[in-house]
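Record type: ASSEMBLY
Status: queued
Input:
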Amino acid sequence: ETGVTQSPTHLIKTRGQQVTLRCSSQSGHNTVSWYQQALGQGPQFIFQYYREEENGRGNFPPRFSGLQFPNYSSELNVNALELDDSALYLCASSHDRGDNEQFFGPGTRLTVL
Amino acid sequence: GEDVEQSLFLSVREGDSSVINCTYTDSSSTYLYWYKQEPGAGLQLLTYIFSNMDMKQDQRLTVLLNKKDKHLSLRIADTQTGDSAIYFCAPDRGSTLGRLYFGRGTQLTVWP
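Status: finished
Output:
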């Protein structure tokens, strides 16, 4: 039990739609990172937020965006969904940037039809 | 090639030791992590090692780091059936604090 929760657990969308995934970090964790894990692959870094500002981004297009709120919750938004966006989306929180312990949530399984 | 490489599969008998190997490319990695993922679940942090160490022991887990060769290994002593899972090594990107990069992971199967 990492204290990091994500919702929803599963989601089915169709191509072209928009989706919002949510993450609730441990209290006091100022940093949240989002990862995409396609089937059979390792997680790929999407972006990181620190104190509500984006603090680094992986190789993902601008239709992937995020928000972080003062209450230690955060969102990942994906516009214009494509079939290849089908994946497990994981958020990970840590107390601070570069903190040597990142705790992952259970993930949201997104299926795009 | 991949930034992190691991063997895809490893099978061991219950009670034996398991050794999972990993090679990576970013020489500026500060922390190197091992995560465990069970089917349908998120990632569980097992242990990590700081880049200026060459060994860390944590109960049944031993991590070895050869920074010169960029090689990391995880040894699990007295492997149990409950250890069956996918194991990921995840160095951080030295250029971006807290950003981890993963390979495809090693599927460990433990036979009774």
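Annotation: Chain B has a mean pLDDT of 92.
Annotation: The longest strand of chain B covers residues 43-50.
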